[in-house]
Design goal:
The protein has 7 helices and 2 strands. Strands 1-2 form a two-stranded antiparallel sheet. Strand 1 and strand 2 form a beta hairpin.
């Protein structure tokens, strides 16, 4: 039961909820990407070649129980490919998420929430003093 004693079984959700769902999915995808970068999944596969779940889990020190959904998300996001139970980096990953690539974007992606006004947007929107961007360089 929820407010006003309305049963969840009878609750009709108006159009628009799918937009909110997309917002949260974007955040979830970012955290999956950030975790893969921080755990070294892409670098491991670049160095050791295609690997199954167990090989990647051992090589990146990832808890095995969570590997299947984690890797499935990376495949769904087109960051990994899956062929005969072996995972490999996708072209997008090779182009933008490996430090050896001249187009590497990993550090920028990893630091978005830590080194920008996005890390605490509420505080940034409430600031009364101008932001001194030059002092952060």
């Amino acid at each position: 039961m929820i407010a006003n004693n309305v049963s969840l079984m009878r609750l009709e959700v108006p159009p628009g909820i799918e937009k909110l769902t997309r917002f949260t999915e974007g955040y979830q995808k970012y955290t999956i990407l950030e975790a893969a970068l921080n755990l070294g999944v892409f670098a491991f596969l670049a160095e050791h070649g295609p690997g199954d779940r167990e090989k990647i889990a051992a090589g990146c020190a990832i808890q095995g129980m969570l590997m299947r959904p984690f890797l499935a998300c990376l495949v769904d996001m087109d960051l990994l490919t899956l062929d005969n139970e072996l995972y490999s980096n996708s072209k997008i990953t090779n182009d933008f998420l490996l430090a050896r690539s001249p187009l590497y974007q990993g550090e920028w992606l990893r630091n978005i929430k830590q080194s920008s006004q996005w890390s605490d947007l509420t505080a940034a929107l409430q600031r009364t003093e101008p932001i001194d961007f030059a002092s952060s360089l």
